[in-house]
Amino acid sequence: MNKLLLQITLLVFTCSLFAQKKIEANQLQCEMLTNPLGIDVLQPRLSWLIKTSETELEQTAYQILVASSPENLAENKADLWDSGKVNSNVSVNITYAGKKLDSKDEAYWKVKIWTNKGESDWSKPAFWSMGILTYAEWKSTRWIGYNQLFSGDTVGQFSKLSARYVRKQINLEKKIKKAKVFIMGMGLYEFYVNGEKIGNQVLAPVPTDYTKNVKYNVFDVTNQLQQGDNVLGTILGNGRFFAMRQEYKPYKIKSFGFPKMALQLVVEYEDGTKETIKTDETWKFTPNGPIRANNEYDGETYDARKEIKDWNKVGFDDSHWMNLMWVQEPGGFYEGQMTPNMKVMDTVKPVSIKKTSKGTYILDMGQNMVGWLQLKVKGNSGDKVMMKFAESLQENGSLYIANLRDAKTTDTYILNGNGQEAWEPKFVYHGFRFVEITGFPGKPTLDNFLGKVVYDDMKTTGTFESSDETMNQIFKNAYWGIRGNYKGMPIDCPQRNERQPWLGDRTTGAYGESFIFNNQTLYAKWLDDIKYSQTLDGGIPDVAPAFWRYYGDGVTWQGAYIKVADMLHIQFGDTESIKKHYPYMKKWLLYMEDNYLKNDLMTKDKYGDWCVPPESLEIIRSQDPTRLTDGELLSSAFYYHLLQIMKKFARISEAKPEDIIYYDALANRVKKAFNDKFFHKENFSYANNTVTANVLPLAFDMVPDNLKEQVFQNMVHEIEVTKQGHISTGVVGTQFLMRTLTEFGRGDLAYKLASNKTYPSWGYMVENGATTIWELWNGNTADPKMNSQNHVMLLGDLMIWYYENMAGIKSSEAHPGFKQIIMKPDFNAGLSYVNASYNSIHGLIKSHWNIKRSMLTWQVTIPANTSALVYLPTTKASDVKVNRQRLASSKKDYQIKDEKLVLTLKSGTYKIEVN
């Protein structure tokens, strides 16, 4: 397999420059953002972040040194790469261009920069090591497992399989200098050395279609090993690998087999020799450990009476354990995992516990969350505590579980009776606010429970606060919903028997999420998931990885492949993902054209404008044709939009010039056919005049210039009059609604939609007790078959609008990754203040404005080595002060554009006042 197709450029380093008066007196301090072990990118990209108290600082040059040892680097012996002094202001995504690195090589690097304020010292060193780069190096490492059910195991609708406890005692005869373990544990694993769990990750590794690609993790275990006897131990859980309804619905859900693992422990001794310990048939296991069942949908059962003391330590007698067997590999190519694993990222204390009439207890966490409960309990051996998880309660106070479908969502703990016991599951997660506690010995209190919030290990990068409390709570709900649905891939919901990575849910959602979380590596990995799921003829599934065999051929869902890559470019300056995936995106576009483009219109659509507010509060999907948008209009408009993006991608990828000509010609044909068929001149509307039917051609620049204003005013009438100032769009239309309203001068109407409290609206969810975002606008009343209370697809472009249009934090497409920032808030939308921040790849951006008595006060922070175009609501320089100095007498650059005064500001913090 072509190694280039397997590269994912997710190695990101940041360095911080702390300057006071003289930049040359300070140091660069480097910090790793991601796990530097096991990189399988042949040319990783290096970045550094410049933090300084100096204003208007610009990098003018840099030099990178990369060495094979810290000693060489300390002596400036760059035996791997010396970039030399490079005259450039680029500080992110610098491609390593040194000697070719082989498997397991280590690289140590540092950087110095030159700026308009002086020269920096060398940074502190950073580090990365290469993974296993070829399949041949894994070939001699056998996959081991045991393809058999044991007592208590079942396969069917509610499959049960106990965890397999695996161990191997080894002897290391020499003094150890360095040791790393490379591990693939399917479906989930926890790894131990001499009784100590390695790493703080949970639910590892991240999920993939294991027949296409398998992720390995790498850990430095030097400090855990000792000369002499050692024990390597693994607990293998089921994850998505084994029987999440696969055997129950094999025609729909992929099946991968029984849990299995492959491992290499590479030990380097102080005398310079090396030894590699690998998995083979001498490894021992037992299925008779305490984890009796673990199924993502149904929960985990733990019998503490079956705990095996010291099973993962030297001296344990494993003579009664069975030998594992060599088993068939999963089938997918082996790749170093370049996105962080999940871990416990937060904790939540419950707010109340109440006894029910049937003697159980209802625990309220006060927040719809995703993860699990830690239980503390004291009782007799054999006492059984059951915890059933749900998002809401029925009127009688019992759990509402109808929306969970057939997911049992129950964890069970059986006590051993040895005093105070503490437990939490290892291989499941739940979406819940409420928990029914059954069988607790004695009377439980709040102190017996603690919520553990689990999602991908990524930094929160954005904050937002405004003068509107409803908008603030919506932001909080979005925050909780987004992070809860990051599970090594973006899933739709965390509670029912679905939890799938639907493409359509994140087509634009990924963009808004990127302001709140550093989701770059997650979505770069997801692009790989989509690529691996592509059929030979070019088709893309609705869900990727394709755990469900849904290949419905649409544009609005499958278009996420292109839109997410565009987001990575705009927000993170990532061009490598575009270059890597361009051939597959092009293949899909041609596939859709060949099969479904008729008379220059895209005729195939599967889901429509999914989840428009229905005519009845009790139904899921509207049957009213006046509310529904023509599927051909949706797919044709979206196809046109994607063709425009592909023109940009072709330039970035340095594709053949004919590609751009082809996209341009096809787009022009689609645009003409679209307007010929769907535009109605008599009332300046498209198709049946839904808001979605009009907002898409406006957002995609498909409306003739001389008709845009009329079409927009017609759309405004639909919102303000026909829909009485409420939202009427579904998943597709909502992706472009808020920004389009603001772009055409009606930010006030967008604000009304954002702050509404009556149905249908995001505020209606808040008013009805939501602490996350619902799947349906009527999620509190609709048929339970589809009313998840933790979905993010209906956010549309709301979070983008919060940041770009209300806070004024937007990346210039001409200078992506926030190298140039567009700061253009709509001060007239209706808010009186906004306080927001975003930690971009270039540094922290802040925007804090308020309006009092016709005075705008706006404090902005612009990171070092960037600039910003700052739009002010005036055309008079005499109305403006910058840092208490009148603009008219300052040396600040400005221009008048679109009836606004536009300042060009370089890095620093500025207080701007406008009368």
TrEMBL record:
Stored Pfam families: Bac_rhamnosid, Bac_rhamnosid6H, Bac_rhamnosid_C, Bac_rhamnosid_N, Ig_Rha78A_N
Reaction(s) this enzyme catalyzes, per UniProt: Hydrolysis of terminal non-reducing alpha-L-rhamnose residues in alpha-L-rhamnosides
Enzyme Commission code(s) on record: 3.2.1.40
Domain of life: Bacteria
Signal peptide boundaries: 1-19
Annotated Bacterial alpha-L-rhamnosidase N-terminal domain residues: 174-345
Domain Alpha-L-rhamnosidase C-terminal residues, every copy: 808-884
Enzyme class, broadest EC rank: hydrolase
A single GO molecular function term of this UniProt record: hydrolase activity
Alpha-L-rhamnosidase concanavalin-like domain sequence ranges: 354-455
Gene3D superfamilies, per the entry: 1.50.10.10, Galactose-binding domain-like, Immunoglobulins, Maltose phosphorylase, domain 3
Hydrolase listed as a keyword: yes
Keywords assigned: Hydrolase, Signal
Domain called Alpha-L-rhamnosidase six-hairpin glycosidase: residue spans: 460-806
Protein name as annotated: alpha-L-rhamnosidase
